[in-house]
Amino acid sequence: MKVGDRVRVIDSVIVYHHPEHRKEPFDIKGMEGEVTAIILEWQGRPVSANLPIQVQFTKKFKAHLRQNELEVI
């Protein structure tokens, strides 16, 4: 998986920051988006991020996910 890949969420992932469902639990399983970043380092130092893959789903909604929660389309 690399930046620019189209991906789909394959696991049930509950988020509370979806713009249309603010402060409510919302399952993003099945949503498709584009990988915009993979966080492996911060300020030049390696990091072990829990949710390293940033995916942009819509103009207003992006989320950080694990690799095993996504599949490349």
Structural class: mainly beta
Uncertain stretches of 5 or more adjacent residues: none
Helix content, binned percent: under 10%
Rounded mean pLDDT score: 94
Principal-axis shape: globular
Largest sheet: 5 strands, antiparallel
**What Rg, in angstroms, do the CA atoms define?**
12 Å
Number of helices: 0
What fraction strand?
Answer: 35-45%
What order do the strands of the largest sheet run in, or round the barrel if closed?
A: 8-7-4-1-9
Number of strands: 9
How far apart are the termini?
A: 10 Å
The H-and-E topology, N to C, reads as EEEEEEEEE
Q: Which features characterize this protein?
A:
single chain, 73 residues, five-stranded antiparallel β-sheet, mainly beta, two-stranded antiparallel sheet
What can you see in these coordinates?
With 73 residues, the protein is an all-beta fold. Helices cover 0% and strands 41% of the residues. The protein is built from no helices and 9 strands. The strands form 3 sheets. Strands 8-7-4-1-9 form a 5-stranded antiparallel sheet, with no helix packed on it. A two-stranded antiparallel ribbon has the order 2-3. Strands 5-6 form a two-stranded antiparallel ribbon. A hairpin with a 5-residue loop joins strand 7 (53-56) and strand 8 (62-65). The radius of gyration is 12 Å and the shape is globular.
How do the helices and strands line up, and which of them pair or pack?
Blueprint: E1 6-9, E2 14-15, E3 26-27, E4 32-38, E5 41-42, E6 45-46, E7 53-56, E8 62-65, E9 70-72
Antiparallel strand pairs: 1-4, 1-9, 2-3, 4-7, 5-6, 7-8
